[in-house]
Amino acid sequence: MTECTWPSSELMKKYHKEEWCRINKDDQYIFELLSLEGAQAGLSWETVIQKREAYQEAFKQFDIEKCAQLTDEELENIRTEYNVIKHKGKIQSVRNNAIIAQDVQREYGSLADFLWSYVDGQPIINKWQRTNDVPAETELSIKLSKDLKKLGFKFVGPKIVYSFLQSIGIIDDHIITCPYHTHNR
């Protein structure tokens, strides 16, 4: 079987094998991936993955309640003292998005329930022949991006949202010959 060709480093191969396009409905994990995907805007995913442990430490393992309570001083300390992407807006978006995520949890029961409602609880399992066939965005990511922005989420453009949906398994975009594709596991 031929694996997806995009993972180039060992770190990316590990992410591809163990996490990418795997269904996950844990709100803390979902919030982590939403935050990391937002941090990736304009950069490579590998850059973010290399900093993942620092992000986890800085943002208290992405505990939504703790992230929602971060002060301006704590956010500035994260920016200056941790090996994270130094973009102020991206750092502040974690607190902002945690506050909004709490609102979503109160209204929908969980962040996962809200997101999975867009696909009626069923993952989208694509059957791409080549990595180059995978789109950067779709009607779903455009709609969800607009809805997330209306709720007040930051750094949730359609391309970021599409990558996010892959990262939490709502979309399986492994090429059909990849041993990690849903139909091959």
Automatic annotation (TrEMBL):
This is DNA-3-methyladenine glycosylase I. InterPro entries: Adenine_glyco (IPR005019), DNA-3mA_glycosylase (IPR052891), DNA_glycosylase (IPR011257). Pfam families: Adenine_glyco. It comes from the Bacteria.
